[in-house]
Amino acid sequence: MLLGDGAPVTGDASAPVLRASDVSVELGGLPVLRGVDLAVRPGEVVALLGGNGSGKSTLVRALLGLVPLTRGSVELFGTPLRRFRSWGDVGYVPQRSAAAPAGAKVREVVASGRLAHRRPFVPPRAADRAAVAAALAAVDLTERAGDDLGVLSGGQQQRVLIARALATEPRLLVLDEPTAGVDLAHQEVLTQVLADLVAAGTAVLVVLHDVGSLGALVDRGVVLREGRVALDGPLASLEARLHPPGHEHHEPEPVDPHWLDGTVIR
Ligand SMILES: Nc1ncnc2c1ncn2[C@@H]1O[C@H](COP(=O)(O)OP(=O)(O)OP(=O)(O)O)[C@@H](O)[C@H]1O
Fold first, then answer.
1. What DSSP assignment string belongs to 22-77?
2. Looking at domain 18-99+170-259, which CATH architecture does it have?
């Protein structure tokens, strides 16, 4: 369909890239997520917060189709998850303990982030090689590209997983505790890399225990508690509800700090 001036209709540019409605998940016969609603828009950075076992990783995995929903629905870029095929638009950094392929070279792991862009049995194109090189440079691991993943330190392995997701050149980047085990200097490098992606329109959903340097990028925090969304709002408002100034009477009700179970917002 064309508008009167001939411009193609491309849809609502601010439509959510990710929308979860009433998502419930049971694992081992027990409810883990209970009616979660969540939307992430282009260029938005949403932090998923909450105590241990509140369901953050399960939610991320459910949103990517890695665990089945028992109720509710997920849309990626406006397409229901069961019909979604554009995985080249999605980057995923799992929790490190969940992924450390034995015997793989660093470059191979990062290059696997390009698979959704490539046709089978065709050698990588210049664009694929350039994306891998840029991703390795972004996490400061160019020199280690030929090493076995297993000989890298824990924090370096984490940076490899981040590079794999960056190599995808995603429009939606989902990261599960990406800064766990990463030193402060490289957390700041990661923050700058993400800031550049976000400025270019990439949306980010990031599970965090310690908001740390990434906090400067975060637009909104969503706090899970026992598989439900307990709070959803700007980080500053969550912080105000956790630490209300004693002398003001118009602040919202303080929330129970145990909901965050040690999560550090500031
Ligand atoms: N495969 C599984 N089978 C049974 N229960 C599971 C499974 N995976 C997760 N759970 C349970 O689901 C709950 C939520 O786990 P999840 O890993 O999503 O929490 P989390 O908020 O990411 O925690 P953390 O901050 O410790 O990483 C926990 O009680 C966990 O034991």
1. EEEEEETTEEEEEEEEEEE-TT-EEEEE-STTSSHHHHHHHHTTSS--SEEEEEET
2. 3-Layer(aba) Sandwich (3.40)
